[in-house]
Each structure stands twice: as C-alpha cells, then as structure tokens.
Specification:
- The protein is α+β, with helices and mostly antiparallel strands.
- The protein has two domains: 202 residues, Aminopeptidase, CATH 3.40.630; 143 residues, 3-Layer(aba) Sandwich (Aminopeptidase), CATH 3.40.630.
- It contains twelve helices and 15 strands.
- The strands form two sheets. The protein has an eleven-stranded mixed β-sheet with strand order 2-5-6-8-15-9-14-13-12-11-10.
- Helix 10 links the parallel strand 13 and strand 14.
- The longest helix has 27 residues.
- It is globular and about 65 Å long.
- The chain starts with 5 loop residues before the first strand and ends with a helix.
- The mean pLDDT is 95.
- InterPro entries: Acyl_CoA_acyltransferase (IPR016181), FemAB-like (IPR007434).
Length: 387
C-alpha cells in the first residue's frame, strides 16, 4: 500500500515538537528547531524584517516526514547569493521581482541540507510542493521566483532534475588532516609553504606582543555580560561597513541558552578585559565561523581571533572542517582551500528564465577557471598538494 502524504505550509514552528523537527534536522546547528525559533521569535527573521516563514512540511498522518525551510521575501538582504542585478533587470523591464520564495538559513552562508527528508521520494515531493507553491503564488500575488541557497550538491542535483537552474559559487574552507587530524597548530603550519608559514607566525607574534590572550566559551560558559560585549562588537562591525545589523542581543542570548553545546564564543582579552570577540557554531564535524568585531585595532587581531583560534579549536576537538564564512580570497594564504558551493533557481518569467540560465552557464565556466587559478596558488607545499 502506497502511503498518503499531506503537504502543509506553516508560518511558525510552534506547532511542531522540537523532537520531531530535530529528528529531520540531525545535528546541523543551523537547521535545529531552536535556531529557527530564535530567529523568528526575536524578530530577526520575521514578517516585519521581510522574512515571512512559509515552511513546507510533509506529513504521513500525524508523523512529520519532511520539511523545507522557506521564506516569502520582499528584498534580497542577508542572503550571500547576490541577485540584485536580476531584480534590477526585472524593474527596468517593467516587472516585479519581489516578492520571491527563498529556501535558506537566514543570514547564514553555510552549506547544508535544505530538503529535510530521508528518501529521494520525500525530497522530490518537497521540491515539487515548493515549485507548485511558487507557480500558484505567481498567479495570485506576483511571486517571481523560487531560490534555494547553499544546498548540498546532491540536493542541488535533485532540484536540477525538477527543473531548477543551478548556480555555482566559491568559499574557502580549512580542512583538518585526514587520518586523525593535525596533532597541533605547528603540525598544520609545517605543511604550508615557507612564505605562508612565516607570515602566519609573524601575525601571531604581533598579537602576542600586544598582551592579548584568548578564552573559548561554550554557551554554558558565556554569561549575559559576555554576550553584551559580543553584540557591541558585532554592531560596531556593521557600523564600520555602513550597514545595519541583522541580529539582536535577544537572539544571541537565546542561542546561548537553547544551543549551548553548539556555541563557541572566542574572546580576545588584554589585562583580563575583552577587546574583541568572534562567534562560531559547530557540531562534532564542522565549525562555522559567523561574526566578529573589535573595540580597537590591533595588528593581526582579526586573523588570530577569527581564523587561527578557530583552527586551534578544531585541532583540539578533532573537528574535520572549518567553514570560515562567505567570500575571502585572503583566507587562501592562511591555509584555507577553495570549494564550490551551490544554489538552485526557478523563475516564472520564461524570457528572464532563459536569459538568466544562459548567464549562469557562462558564470559557471568563469567559476571553473577561477577555481583552477586558486588551486594553482595553494598555500601548501607541493608534496602536500599531491597527496
């Protein structure tokens, strides 16, 4: 007997138990019920900020079998896969690009599952439901498109089979050595070329000479004063870039309480007083660099706080991968390697869909060439690259 499934679109996770949702999400911190609920309940990702939850859920009777995080959006802020040019082209042609449907983790350019279901059949039902929803809303309210950002490659391919167009991007990730990982930071440096190794040691010495030491805090260890200091740093970073911060103190406090085991807050201190901070999330396999800020300029402090301390943490805890965030070719010189990331897109307007599809084919070729160039500039010794 073929099971019958029901698709429900929900605007809140309140009606789904933490246990049922997290059974689908697994140990990815960005997919957990606690993370999405913190985003929504603190107003960071909400109707008021242009992130209206429209999560697609798949039910077999009263059992949750699948889910797709989905938002109805009226802008493209906080996404890290840039489609502003597409929106502008729509506007110049006399069409509306917004609202659009977006499957993503708000403000988080991290690769992970988006089709939260165990079987290919269930995942296909989720994609089909999202596309059907996009087409229906296009006719009803003018929704222009459906986008899925930073899925795993296997899910991106499944979306491509369903009629979506794939887009390629590049990030820089640090990988722990195979077969147990590095024994210590110097073992990692020993595999870099002489020039890269020398530069990193110089950067670290400068920070040390300033009397800076570091403290690693989990959510269990971080108190409200730690979080207030971090948020001051976070806000200052956004002000320095002439932009508005997406997240608030309430969100970070809630994150620390509801997901303490996934939090790594790195504090830089001088004379026991904090001067800078970086927030990371992690599970047993991956550390995700997220936000940083400093109250004063110290040469090399950014690289030490955001990268070298995080690498030290990965080595100490046998974490295999460190995703340092979006962009950042400067990471290459510090032991990070380029990796391909994915997004999938469907546009209702046939002429725009064809034009963007053609553009993405050319863009993918450029990405391939760029990846080749980056790999030629690997920071590792030649003999290490060939392993």
């Amino acid at each position: 007997m073929i099971p019958e499934f029901e698709v429900k679109v929900i605007d809140s996770l309140d009606g789904i138990s933490v246990k049922a949702w997290n059974a689908l999400a697994g140990d990815d911190p960005f997919l957990r019920h606690e993370f999405f609920s913190a985003m929504h309940d603190t107003g960071c990702a909400s109707r008021a900020t242009g992130w209206l939850p429209q999560f697609v859920t798949l039910w077999e009777g009263n059992t949750l079998r699948g889910a797709l995080p989905l938002y109805l959006k009226n802008h493209s802020y906080g996404e890290y896969v840039f489609d502003w040019a597409w929106a502008d082209a729509y506007r110049r042609a006399g069409h509306r690009y917004y609202p659009k449907l977006l499957s993503a983790v708000p403000f988080s350019p991290v690769t992970g599952r988006r089709l939260l279901a165990e079987t290919p059949e269930h995942r296909a039902l989720l994609v089909s439901a999202a596309l059907k929803m996009a087409k229906s809303k296009n006719a009803e309210t003018g929704v222009s498109s459906f986008h899925c950002l930073f899925p795993r490659e296997d899910e991106a391919r499944e979306m491509e089979l369903a009629g979506m167009t794939l887009r390629h991007g590049i990030q820089f990730h640090w990988k722990n050595r195979d077969a147990g990982g590095y024994a210590h930071f110097e073992a990692f440096l020993g595999e870099l070329s002489h020039g890269k190794r020398k530069k990193i040691r110089q950067e670290r010495r400068k920070v040390h000479a300033e009397g800076i030491r570091f403290q690693w805090l989990s959510g269990h260890d971080a108190n409200p004063d730690h979080w207030r200091f971090f948020v001051n740093c976070y806000n200052k970073t956004y002000r320095n870039h002439h932009s508005m911060p997406y997240l608030n103190l309430e969100f970070f406090l809630r994150l620390g309480k509801s997901m303490p085991e996934n939090v790594l807050l790195i504090l830089a201190l001088r004379d026991d007083q904090p001067v800078a901070a970086a927030l990371n999330l992690h599970n047993s396999r991956t550390l995700y660099g997220r936000y940083w800020g400093t109250m004063e300029f110290v040469p090399g402090l950014h690289f030490e706080t955001c990268y070298y301390q995080a690498i030290e943490f990965c080595i100490a805890h046998c974490i295999a991968l460190f995703e340092g965030g979006a962009q950042g070719e400067h990471k290459l010189a510090r032991g990070f390697l380029p990796v391909r990331v994915w997004s999938a897109h469907w546009l209702a307007h046939p002429e725009f869909a064809a034009a963007i599809g053609k553009y993405l084919k050319h863009e993918a070729q450029d990405i391939n060439h760029y990846l080749d160039e980056l790999n030629e500039s690997s920071p590792f010794k030649k003999e290490m690259r060939e392993k």
